[in-house]
Amino acid sequence: MTDPLIWHAGGCHCGAVRFETALPKRVEAQACNCSMCEKLGFIHIIVPESRFRIMSGTDRLSDYSFNTGVAHHLFCSTCGVKSFYRPRSNPDGWSVNARCLDDPSALEIVIDPFDGRNWEANAASLAHLSLEDAIQ
């Protein structure tokens, strides 16, 4: 039996950007070692589109894309924090930064390493996480 989904709130440092994501009690997350994630300390919780909503601050988001331009790295234009983004591995979903949840201690977050330095060889292992029936 899977845990029921509960909506959890989060946001950037200054509070201008706020979001909610529906998560089970136990969550699988990834700590990526690519040049972007490692520098930011981003801990990925990838969810389907239906389990993510921006509550406020869309007008404060700045978009940064590089390489293929598929991923949309969204930053608060006031404080610079990247609370979530549209990942290249899951363009039909969202990656939420576990560190930007208001109360991450309410979850059992299991963090697995992800070798993003070798992106092409490993990206397919994340593709299932944004599927509607994927419960982490």
Characterize this entry briefly.
By secondary structure, this protein is mainly beta. The chain has helices at 35-40, 119-122; strands spanning 6-11, 18-23, 26-32, 43-48, 52-56, 61-64, 72-76, 84-86, 93-97, 108-114. The chain has one domain (6-130): Metal Binding Protein, Guanine Nucleotide Exchange Factor, Chain A.
Q: What does this protein look like?
A:
- With 136 residues, this protein is mostly beta strands.
- It has one domain (6-130): Beta Complex (Metal Binding Protein, Guanine Nucleotide Exchange Factor, Chain A).
- Helix content is 7%, strand content 40%.
- The chain is built from two helices and ten strands.
- The strands form two sheets. Strands 6-7-8-9-4-3-10 form a seven-stranded mixed sheet, with no helix packed on it. Strands 1-2-5 form a three-stranded antiparallel sheet, with no helix packed on it.
- A hairpin with a 7-residue loop joins β6 (61-64) and β7.
- The two termini are 12 Å apart.
